[in-house]
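Fold it.
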Amino acid sequence: MKQVETMSSLFERTFKEAHAVHTHAPGRVNLIGDHTDYNQGFVLPAAIDFGTDVYASKREDNLVKVSAATFDCQLVEFDLADIAFNKDLMWPNYVAGCMLILKQSGFPISGVNLLITGNIPQGGGLSSSASLEMAIIKVLATLFEFSLSGIQAAQLGQRVENEFVGCNCGIMDQLASAMGKESHAILLDCQSLEIQVAQIPKDWAILIINSNVKRGLVDSEYNLRRQQCEQAAKFFDAGSLRHVSLNQLNDANSKLDPLLLKRARHVITENERVLKAKSDLESSDMASLCKLMFESHESLKNDFETSVPQVDSLIDILRSELVPDNSGGARMTGGGFGGCVVAIVKQEKVDLITQLVKEQYPQKTGLIADLYLCKAVQGAFR
């Protein structure tokens, strides 16, 4: 309640009126299944209790005025009749992109005042941009009284990324933010957009560890990996790697370019791991789930080549403590080249893991990691 009161006051000071509506959209962490979404595969994310809040009121004109409390209350304005990409500041483009895509899609929007705040660690691979998109779309749907399903909202957010921002991402981040379920992970079929859920045992915790390695290569390398996956799928005359089996891949071992073989092997085996992970959660076979998470990291490290030494050091620290008694699993999460590690650990191990990371990670890398204890929460459109 204190945050709401503080942001309400800030809104009034900024726009000289009270806000009319307030919405929240969570970030997400992907428990397993990276770089499978744009290959029409499977992912197993959870919405988390870090997210984005947007406060809004209608205006009498066609202007959009938006202030970001997260970025020192920077104030940006633009006209709905002339929405253009902002080359100087990145964050306003997610707002402008949402307004443009909604406008193009025929939704009844007009001028607004917006105040944005949030607590998602920036650049850590926890989908701050998707959370912002879902919060903006939700607040506009509430303010202008039009209805959207969670899947529709996620599709609009993906269009914002693909068509306006310039990131050729899949739909996982937006859909997890929109459709997360409290205490559950969600299995998303990125081809059919079918969603299933699996409960996370209450005595297990989600721990996110930010390596604090700046993810400078993620955009260019992300797009390159996607191109490589498409080339591999084309070799098999398949629409995507979703439709290529491991047996087919092994049969093509001597014919397919070795680099494309590695990229495809990660995607195909990762899809299998995701489906098994969901089954493990349903049966509470946490030992198997933890093994899958470490296997996923090795695949991302060796076949997809998106890890970095500092992240591998975090995994080594966690592995040494968690593997002997099957008390947890860990893997890099997100686009790669830095960012975060996600771990699922027994609640009783959280303090010890935190201590080990704080002691050993600086010794190994010269960096200090940030740790976030999370829980799975409801999505913005649930």
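The chain has eleven helices and eleven strands.
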